[in-house]
Amino acid sequence: MPIPAISVAMSVYNGERYLAEAIESVLAQSFGDFEFLIVDDGSRDATPGIIRDYAARDCRIRPIIRENRGLIASLNEMLEVAQAPVIARMDADDICRPDRFEKQIAFLNSHPDYGVVGSWSEDIGEHGEALQRGGEDHPLRHEDMLIAIEQGGQLICHPAAMYRREIVRSVGGYHAAFRHCEDFDLWLRLASVTRMGNIAERLVRYRRYPGQVSSRHATEQQIGTAVARLAWQERQAGRADPTATLDRLPPIDELDTLFGRAGTAREVRERVALGLLYSSAALRNEGFELLMAHLRDGGRREGMWRTVARLMRFGEPMRALRLAAMLTATRAA
Questions:
Q1: How far is 191 from 233, CA to CA, in rounded Å?
Q2: Per-residue pLDDT tens for 295-329?
């Protein structure tokens, strides 16, 4: 069989709810020269059966059904077994526009200095309804990408990404330590070896709902993002990246030791705490205790009384009272 132009990489874990719609949006692409790798990462629902059914109907699908190993292991596995020189990422709860691959492969073919291209995305809700976007769209040119890194902005929407396989392999693929923000860490490492950009069209419909990974693991994701940025700063300064060989990030309190610099833990705790003020999932879980530790450490208090009101709206009156008591006590001190 001839080598395909694109390997589509999708990992699924208990994704039966939206999987068929995601698969069909890939199979309906106007650019059809691809293989479709779908890893079932040990699902306990109907996911394996759905994958096998579609694979029986379309020979471009290469199913990998196995035990659970986690998303990062699945991504690296697909990176190794992919036959094409270009990989298109896709998630099992999102939807591709029919011309997504056509436009992205055309961009890479006409821009040989770019190793990664994403696109803007359209936000949809749990039932496919349109959602109003908040914030700015992803940067388009590589130069804008570097500015976004400095300013803490977004880079590339992972399920909208298409990249050259060998460039990603050359930087070690996805790093195990950065669970739930593995893409952001990868973009930071790639920014030093290739150009990256986005197409100014909404080629992916990105689903947002309470059960998705970014909602369930908001605190861990924010911590990893902050540490990934610190690691990028170390590399930019010509120093060794202390996270390069880690399988898991240490607790925040151990970051001073990891980076060999006093104040690193406090810096990360503050960045994460302030970044979680609007996340109901985080404030209902471990993010709240991180916020309290930030305040006990003398951290910034701007907007905290509004967070008390927000906790009441989130149905967390006891946490609202704890935060109010902390703010009152620190002000009196």
A1: 12
A2: 998 888 888 999 999 999 999 999 999 999 999 98
User: Cα–Cα distance between 111 and 141 in angstroms, integer?
Assistant: 12
User: 2, exposed or middle or buried, with CB in 10 Å at 0-12, 13-18, 19+?
Assistant: exposed
More reliable by pLDDT, 4 or 277:
4
Domain 6-212 falls under CATH 3.90.550.10: yes
According to the model, what pLDDT value does residue 174 have?
98
Cβ(131)–Cβ(170) below 8 Å:
no
Tokens representing 6 are 């694109």
Strand partners for 8: 36, 88
Beta-carbon count within 10 A of 96 CB: 23
Taking the C-alpha atoms of residue 66 and residue 43, their distance in angstroms, rounded to an integer, is: 9
pLDDT digits (tens, 9 = 90+) for 124-163: 999 999 998 777 899 999 999 999 999 888 999 999 999 9
First to last CA, the chain: 73
The domain limits of the chain are: 6-212, 217-332
Q: Please name the residue that has the structure tokens 């055309």.
A: 106
DSSP string, 118-154: EEEEEEE-TTS-B----SPPPP-SHHHHHHHHHHT--
Tokens coding 214: 């970014």
> Where do the H-state alpha helices sit in 6-90?
19-27, 47-57, 71-81
CA distances from 271 to 6, 134, 180, 203, 265 (A): 38, 20, 17, 31, 10
